[in-house]
Design brief:
alpha+beta; Agglutinin, subunit A; eight-stranded mixed β-sheet; 14 helices; 19% helix; binds 2-acetamido-2-deoxy-beta-D-glucopyranose; signal; nucleotide-binding; EGF-like domain; ATP-binding
Length: 798
């Protein structure tokens, strides 16, 4: 350790500790002991010695945080050995750090001189920029510290490439706690194929984020937008990068590549006056790059953690048995190019995409087609799962670094020889004999059982024990008797298992009145318990039901086909308390996602037709579930609207074109969603809403407030927390957009979700809404009226 020359410490006293302001000009210099402070006093730049370092560095740290936290260092690799450093702007326009011998230890490295009047300014974002005095726009920065990160990614910094200048911005670890020189680990983007972020030890990949799938990185499902952070991934011809912003200005956060090779996201806790780790990555062994080798799949809750993709076997069974999966897997049957098919595996982190080819403009069907036609194609997947599946990634090489998630990830379609696919199918039909089904797990434990008038038990089908569940989603079961053979085979196709009536009678205590938990459109719903302890819900078709058997079957079949966490049918009596704004917003988002799934993401295009408060159920965690598929209609892929003679639905939620002309399209659901959003915000019902004489319903009232610029008054007055005014206003505007008179003006659910979720989304101005109940629609058969009281009261919550 070098002794610092003592005489130089005296120099301090001749200078004020902070030179005025946030900038250096060509006539001022920064000496050790002086600092620049950004305008609002957020960041400070000056000379520092990190940890126990004997050396001096020019760094940036948080001004207001008492624990000195250095976020950037200029001369990482060339420290000053004493207190004589000077930071100044040289004649050629470059920022330079000089030692006492006037040697240049560090420079901003510009080759063209920037301007005649350069200034170097520390911004409130923590960015230290060199620019012409006259111009402060970001485009005019000749140099900025954000382009040369150290180990920290601050909000607004870009992690990735400027493709025009080949500037690669990445973060790299310090060597140690008190040595900021570049260490072994770095986190950087590979812009090839579908760009991914990789964690490197020296030049070896040790962890991959997976490609950005439009919503998040396919390998980091925990990284999702939340109320604090907004993540984005920008990919244009000129630039490709990842960045994030803070939603709440008061939260201070930073992402750090730490010295032991972990990414850590810190959040400053004002209460504890300390940094706390919000998130870190890699998390488990499966995050280790290519842990299971080519065509191997990693599952961290399995032992051993590696398995082969369907149709593949371990390349080296012996190593595999010794729990070394790195050799990976090989095909059981070679491809023959002409007659191959695909097997779809779900919840996957996509394999390394840097060697894949990507076409954002293709649809998934075109993608499949293109993969089928190209003999070297091994697998394909959607490049963008935001708002449906679109875009195309094609792998013509080994698939490396695949893992699966319980929740998250996406579908990967792997090419297999026809004979392998045939093997799988015969495997499945033997399952059918057991009449076990469905890839499903109800997460808080209620299964829906439908029992129709005609549908009571069929001994021929056999009885079944409950299947072992493998995935989240709804389950539906049918008990049948006297069903036609067609119906039985149709339900077999759906893999519906059957229960005998005795089981159900036993489970519900002979449909005891105490077991009854609600009354749906078709009849009563009972709670029961099977012998094995599984909680079930049993829905019984009532003879008095206004709906027929067909609708009832329709519902059971739809629930069996549909798998989405916002569609599960769950009942809960517990939560009748007032709903906070956070709860309400989460409910709005949940319903929106459920609808989006129905409209776009599921394999069918489904119009629910009867979306209303009473058909939204809340589970214990207040997750909303859309229920009652009795009226839902499945549309063909290309069909966008139809006309129906039988107008059914609920008064107050029906769009004008549907109520009056029977025109049925997904925009009907969008309208109902709009009404529901306004109801959830206001805590009032659309129908039977009387604020004053002029407003016969809630939509009219909301529209009036909107026009008067007072829409915030719509908010339920029982809501006190006003943290989220912008969220409330955005939701009201989205509600009104959905309830517009003209179906073509109403947004698609994918846009609705985006508008709701995006803090600064530029929302269109809503046009006048359709006032569905104000137009003399006397003869509407508003048939399904019975409401599930539990949820109706929760949502009304007053
Ligand atoms: C790096 O981050 C990991 C994960 O948060 C943590 O366990 C480890 O202690 C950190 N290493 C250092 C040197 O801070
Ligand atoms: C991972 O393995 C566990 C234990 O075998 C299993 O329950 C789970 O379903 C597997 N995960 C996935 C996504 O297949
Ligand atoms: C097949 O796909 C690979 C990888 O995408 C591509 O390089 C090759 O040109 C394609 N071949 C044909 C015949 O299209
Ligand atoms: C992904 O899809 C969404 C919805 O269709 C679209 O808005 C977005 O621009 C797409 N992203 C890319 C990178 O193409």
């Amino acid at each position: 350790m070098k002794e610092l020359p003592l005489r130089l410490l005296l120099v301090f006293t001749f200078f004020s500790p902070s030179i005025a302001g946030d900038s250096l000009t060509s006539t001022t210099s920064l000496l050790d002991g002086q600092t620049l402070v950004s305008t609002s006093g957020i960041f400070e730049l000056g000379f520092c010695s990190p940890g126990d370092s004997p050396y001096r560095y020019v760094g940036i740290w948080y001004k207001k945080i008492p624990v000195q936290t250095i976020v950037w260092i200029a001369n990482r690799a060339s420290p000053l050995t004493d207190y004589t450093g000077v930071l100044t702007i040289r004649k050629d326009g470059n920022l330079v750090l000089l030692n006492s011998m006037a040697e240049v230890l560090w420079t901003s490295g510009l080759t063209v001189s920037a301007s005649n009047n350069p200034i170097a300014q520390l911004l409130d974002s923590g960015n230290f920029v060199l620019r012409a005095e006259e111009s402060s726009s970001p485009e005019s920065f000749a140099w900025q510290s954000f382009d040369y990160p150290s180990d920290t990614l601050l909000p607004g910094m870009k992690l990735g490439w400027n493709l025009k200048t080949s500037l690669n911005r990445y973060i790299s670890s310090w060597k140690s706690f008190d040595d900021p020189s570049p260490g072994s680990y770095s986190f950087r983007m590979d812009p090839h194929g579908s760009p991914e972020l990789f964690l490197y030890r020296e030049s070896t990949k040790i962890h991959a984020s997976g490609p950005w799938n439009g919503l998040q990185f396919s390998g980091i499902p925990q990284l999702k937008p939340n109320e604090f952070f907004r993540f984005s991934f920008i990919s244009t011809q000129d630039e490709v990068y990842y960045t994030y912003e803070m939603n709440k200005g008061s939260v201070v956060s930073r992402l750090v590549m730490n010295t032991s090779g972990q990414l850590q996201r810190f959040v400053w806790s004002a209460a504890k006056q300390a940094w706390s780790v919000f998130w870190s990555d890699p998390k488990d062994q499966c995050d280790h790059y290519a842990e299971c080798g080519p065509f191997g799949v990693c599952n961290s809750s399995q032992a051993p953690i590696c398995s082969c993709l369907t149709g593949f076997q371990p390349k080296s069974p012996q190593e595999w048995n010794l729990r070394d999966g790195s050799a990976g897997c090989v095909r059981i049957t070679p491809l023959d190019c002409k007659r191959d098919g695909f097997v779809t595996v779900g919840n996957m982190k996509l394999p390394d995409t840097t060697i894949a080819s990507v076409d954002e403009s293709m649809s998934l069907d075109e993608c499949r087609e293109s993969c089928s036609k190209n003999c070297s194609c091994r697998a394909y997947a959607s490049a963008n799962i935001s708002g449906g599946e679109s875009g195309c990634i094609i792998w013509a090489t080994d698939l490396i670094d695949i893992r699966n998630f319980v929740d998250g990830g996406q579908d990967l379609h792997v090419r297999l020889a026809a004979s392998e696919l045939a093997k799988m199918n015969s495997g499945r039909s033997s399952d059918n004999k057991k009449v076990v089904i469905v890839n499903v797990l109800i997460f808080s434990g209620l299964l829906l059982l439908g029992i129709g008038g005609c549908c009571i038990l069929n001994k021929k089908c056999g009885t079944t024990s409950l299947p072992s569940f493998s995935r989240r989603g709804p389950a539906a079961y049918l008990a049948k008797e006297h069903c036609s053979n067609d119906e039985i085979s149709a339900s077999k196709e759906l893999d519906l298992p059957f229960f005998d009536l005795e089981t159900i009678v036993a489970a519900t205590n002979n449909f005891a009145i105490e077991s009854k938990i609600g009354e749906g459109g078709f009849g009563p719903v009972y709670q029961g318990k099977l012998n094995n302890g599984q909680d079930i819900a049993v829905k019984k078709l009532s003879e008095k039901s206004s709906q027929g058997l067909d609708e009832f079957k329709n519902e059971v079949v739809l629930i069996a086909k549909l798998q989405h966490r916002n569609l599960v049918r769950l009942l809960d009596e517990g939560k009748r308390s007032l709903l906070s704004w956070q709860n309400r917003f989460a409910i709005i988002m949940g319903i929106g996602r459920g609808l989006l799934y129905l409209h776009q993401d599921s394999r069918f295009r489904i119009i629910h037709r009867d979306l209303k408060a009473g058909n939204v159920l809340l589970d214990r965690e207040m997750n909303p579930k859309i229920s009652d598929f009795g009226m839902a209609r499945i549309f063909g892929d290309d069909q966008t609207h139809a006309r129906t003679r039988k107008v059914v639905g609920t008064y107050g939620y029906m769009s004008p074109e549907y109520a009056m002309d029977g025109i049925l399209s997904i925009k009907l659901d969008v309208f109902s969603f709009g009404v529901l959003v306004l109801e959830i915000i206001s805590g009032k019902r659309n129908k039977g809403f009387y604020q004053s004489e002029q407003h016969s319903n809630l939509i009219t009232y909301a529209w009036k407030l909107w026009k008067e610029g007072k829409s915030f008054e719509l908010l339920d007055e029982s809501l006190e927390d006003l943290h989220s005014i912008s969220e409330v206003l955005r939701s009201i505007q989205v509600g009104l957009l959905c309830a517009q008179e003209q179906p073509r003006d109403r947004p698609m659910m994918s846009s609705v979700i985006m508008m709701l979720a995006t803090e600064n989304a530029a929302l269109p101005e809503p046009k006048e809404p359709g006032f569905s109940s104000g137009r003399g629609l006397v003869d509407i058969k508003a048939s399904i009226q019975s409401v599930n009281y539990l949820t109706a009261t929760t949502l009304q919550a007053r």
